[in-house]
Structures are given as structure tokens and as C-alpha cells.
Amino acid sequence: MNTHLRRAAVAAAATAMAVSLAACGSADEAGSEKTNGTGAAKGDDITIGLLLPENQTARYEKFDKPLIEKKISELTNGKAKVIYANAKQDATLQNQQVDTMITNKVDALIVDSVDSKAIAGSVKKAKDADIPVVAFDRLAEGPIDGYTSFDNEEVGHVQGKALLTALGAKAKDGQIVMMNGAVTDPNAALFKKGAHAELDGKVNIGREFDTKEWKPENANANMEAAITALGKDKIIGVYSANDGMAGGIITALKAGGFTTLPPVTGQDAELAGVQRIIAGEQYASVYKPYAPEAAAAAEMAVALAKGESIDSIAKEKVDSPTTKGIPSVLVPVVSLTKDNINDTVIKDGVYTVAEICTPKYKAACDTLGLK
Questions:
Q1: pLDDT at 62
Q2: CA end-to-end span of the chain, whole Å?
Q3: pTM metric for this prediction
Q4: Residue 296: which of 1, 12, 57, 32 has the closest Cα?
Q5: E-strand spans in the chain?
């Protein structure tokens, strides 16, 4: 899909998300509605299973879980029940959690997979048990009924462009290090693809890593190895796929003797990442508005649990390695630098100025006019 069509589809999806689910239960869909065993269509008294992949990254517990739970409550007049489990980066545990959800006879599942391939068998088990599955944030393999995420390839483009902007005319005066995410996460491959589309031919890539489990300590070790191999005088920038890894990278750069830090990218607009941007240690992040992504997941899960169509919610179609034409909602992203902190994470209520501008960062905040 070209950029124009993608953006048009995203805009249409965003508009559809604002439409009440009441419109989904039209007369011509009534014949496909689920029943509660008595022949009556399911109402608001439904149970949704929510499976998130880990609790190292701040977004899952702080944003995704409460946002999804709140939206499901709003859509069902407070009558729906959400059963939550976090896999703590363990794919085997997550498969067991799906089995538990099936045993508990949830009406729909929202799954953010630890390992998109390893979850496929469990997705099929749920499908065989007549439990629809919405893939959240990461596109799980298997017979997925709906999917919502950000435009993940565009995330990589945004990151690559930010690094090129920071490097300016010096883009080929040295070498950059690429710190990609985990190979088990299909999003990491999309981030990498988008970033390479921007960077290839415009910079010299000295070292590139696929970072196990996205862990900051693994990114730190990788960065130490890159500094040893390339020499600190040769490294002019670092592509980091997310903020957590950027923290580990910056720690390695400081320990490696960098008095002036090279530009480092990130993603997720984590509080620590925003503070590093304010302090001038990290150049950029990618702000992903979690509310519309959470809303799309909740709307699809509630509609599917009731046996309703999600055509009015999901306007895009996305293919996974196992399933074609998955109804999807892709949410646009924003490059976050010190110049637009006020207009993004503060304006949207993700963080307050007080949360960001602790005593350590007060002087930097004052310089940027964050008060």
C-alpha cells in the first residue's frame, strides 16, 4: 500500500473508531450473533481475556491495561469482565495463559504475543473453542480475527529520518550502530525495515544487532562490543529501536568515554526517555498514542464477543505469514524531540510537567519552557 492510501486508510480507521458499537448490530448481522446457550444474543455481560507480553516496558501496565479495561467497561455499561494475565516475556507461560482463558470460557481474547510464531497453536485452540482472538500491538500468527497496532514500518521510517536529521551534513563522517529489537517480535522486523529504507546508502552502518528480548542490559552489552570493535572516535550515531534499549546504550556510551554523546533514537516515549531527551542525552523517541490503539482492541473484542461484525471498526487489511486479509486498525505515530514535548505527551495527558520535570531535570525543563 502506498503512503497516500495507507494514510487514507488510517484516517478512515480513526473515524470508524469513534463510531458507537451500537451501529455494528444491524439487522442483517443478527443471524450471526453469538448466544448464551438459551438462544438469546449475548449482551453486555461478557468476559474478555487480556494477555500482555511483559512488564519491563512501562507502557503495558501503565497505559495499555487500564486503557483497554476502561474502554471495555464503557462499551458494555460496566457489565463486562476482563481477566488479565502478563506473560513476563515467557512464551511458554503465555501459551498456558491462553489455555486457562479457554478453560474459563472467555468470550473473546486480546493477545499481545511474546513470540508471534510460538503463539499460533494457542490461537488455533482458541478459535476451535469458538473464542475470537484480537492481536494487539504485535501481529500473532494463527487464525487471528482482528488486529490493531501502529504503522510499524512507518515507525522505522520516523526513527531513521530523525537520526538523519540529527546527523545532518556529517551523516557519512563516521559509522552508526543499529540496535534492533528481538527477532521473536514481528514488529522489530518492521521497525528495522523502515529504518533501513531511510538509512541505507546515506550512512555507514558499522555494527548491527538484533537485541535478545529487547532487554536494556543486552543492548548495553551489544553497545560495549560495538565501541570495542569500531572505536569511540568512529561512532557518530546510534539507531535504537526503543527507549529502554536507548537507556542501556547511553550508559555504555558514557562508560566508553564519550564526553559528547552521539544522537540516539528510541520509541515509546517512556518517561525516562522523555527525560533523557530534555537533558540532551537522547535525541528522539517515537510517540505512539496508546488510547486509540487500546480503543480499537476493546471495540473489536467486544463486537466479536457479541458475534457482531467489525467491518465498521477495522478498515485496513493486513496479512500475517499464516492468515491473509486480517481486519486491522493502524494508528499513526509522531517523532518526539525536545521541540514537541508540550504538544504530544503533555498535551495528551500521558505525563504531567511535574512528573517529567523532577529536580534533576528542572533547569533543562525551564530552558525548554516546560512549566
A1: 87
A2: 42
A3: 0.77
A4: 12
A5: 47-52, 81-86, 108-111, 133-136, 146-150, 175-180, 205-210, 235-240, 285-287, 316-318, 326-331, 334-336
